[in-house]
C-alpha cells in the first residue's frame, strides 16, 4: 500500500477497534510515513538481493542521464504511457517497442558457420557454450534447426527443442507400437518405433551425451558425424 491516506485510515480503524485513544493527525501522518518507508526499504532489499550483478548494472544504466538535450533517462522512456489512439502516438509506441527489443536483446553466444551447411548441426552449441547467468533449456528454431539426430541429442542433454517445421506431410512420425492410434492425426504416423534398436545403442548414446556435457567434444562435431545415415548411432 503506497497511498498515505489509505495507511492513515487503516491506522485509525485499528486504533478504534482496539479502543485506543486517537493521536493527533500530524502524529498519525508521521507514523504512517515511517511505516511505509520501513516496508518499502524491506521490499527494495529483497529485490536487490535477488538481482545478479548484471541485473544491477542494467538498472543503473536505465537510470543514468542521457547525453541529449532532454537529459532524460531510459527509464523515462520505458514508463511512458501509450497516449491517445492517434496515428502519431501509434508510431511513437511502435518506435518505443522497437527500442525496448533492442535494449533487452542479448546474444550469450555467437558462432560463424560455413555457407550451405544445415544449421541444425550447430544449434545445440549455442546453449552448451553459454556461460551467462541466463541458462535456458528451451530452444526455438526454424525448419533448418532440426533433424532426427538433433531431436535425439537435445533430449539426452535435457534441452527441449521446439522448431517450426514446414511440410509436415513429408515427415514420417513413429507410433509407439502398431496398435497405437491417434485421433485426427493418425495418418501422420507411418512408422513404428524400433525399441530394440534403441535399447541396443542407448549406452552409446548416453556416453556421447556425457562427453558433450563434460566438454570433451562439441555437439556439432557429433552431429556432423551423425549426418551420415549409414552411421549405426544415426539408425
Structure report:
The chain has 235 residues and is mostly helical. It has helices spanning 4-17, 25-50, 53-62, 74-78, 87-104, 120-123, 125-128, 148-156, 195-213, 219-226, and strands spanning 138-141, 160-163, 173-175, 189-192. Helix content is 50%, strand content 6%. Strand 1, helix 8 and strand 2 form a beta-alpha-beta unit. Helix 1 crosses helix 2. It is elongated. The N and C termini lie far apart (62 Å).
Radius of gyration: 29 Å
In helices, the fraction of residues equals 40-55%
Mean pLDDT: 83
Low-confidence stretches: none
Number of helices: 10
Order of helices and strands: HHHHHHHEHEEEHH
N-to-C CA distance: 62 Å
The neighbouring-strand order within the major sheet is: 1-2
Shape: elongated
Largest sheet: 2 strands, parallel
Beta fraction of the residues? 5-15%
Give the strand tally: 4
Amino acid at each position: 500500500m503506497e497511498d498515505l491516506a489509505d495507511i492513515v485510515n487503516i491506522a485509525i480503524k485499528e486504533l478504534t477497534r482496539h479502543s485506543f485513544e486517537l493521536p493527533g493527525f500530524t502524529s498519525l501522518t508521521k507514523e504512517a510515513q515511517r511505516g511505509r518507508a520501513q516496508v518499502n526499504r524491506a521490499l527494495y532489499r529483497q529485490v536487490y538481493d535477488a538481482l545478479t550483478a548484471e541485473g544491477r548494472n542494467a538498472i543503473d544504466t536505465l537510470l543514468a542521464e542521457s547525453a541529449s538535450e532532454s537529459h532524460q533517462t531510459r527509464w523515462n522512456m520505458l514508463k511512458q504511457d501509450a497516449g491517445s489512439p492517434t496515428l502519431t502516438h501509434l508510431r511513437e509506441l511502435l518506435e518505443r517497442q522497437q527500442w525496448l527489443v533492442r535494449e533487452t536483446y542479448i546474444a550469450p553466444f555467437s558462432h560463424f558457420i560455413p555457407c550451405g551447411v544445415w544449421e541444425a548441426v550447430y544449434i545445440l552449441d549455442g546453449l552448451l557454450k553459454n556461460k551467462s547467468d541466463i541458462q535456458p533449456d528451451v530452444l526455438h528454431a526454424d525448419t533448418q534447426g532440426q533433424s532426427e539426430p538433433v531431436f535425439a541429442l537435445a533430449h539426452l542433454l535435457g534441452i527441449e527443442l521446439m522448431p517450426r517445421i514446414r511440410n509436415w506431410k513429408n515427415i514420417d512420425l513413429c507410433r509407439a507400437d502398431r496398435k497405437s492410434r491417434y485421433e485426427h492425426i493418425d495418418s501422420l504416423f507411418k512408422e513404428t518405433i524400433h525399441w530394440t534398436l534403441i535399447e541396443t545403442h542407448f549406452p552409446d548414446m548416453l556416453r556421447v551425451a556425457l562427453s558433450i556435457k563434460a566438454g570433451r567434444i562439441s555437439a556439432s562435431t557429433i552431429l556432423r558425424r551423425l549426418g551420415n545415415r549409414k552411421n549405426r548411432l544415426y539408425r
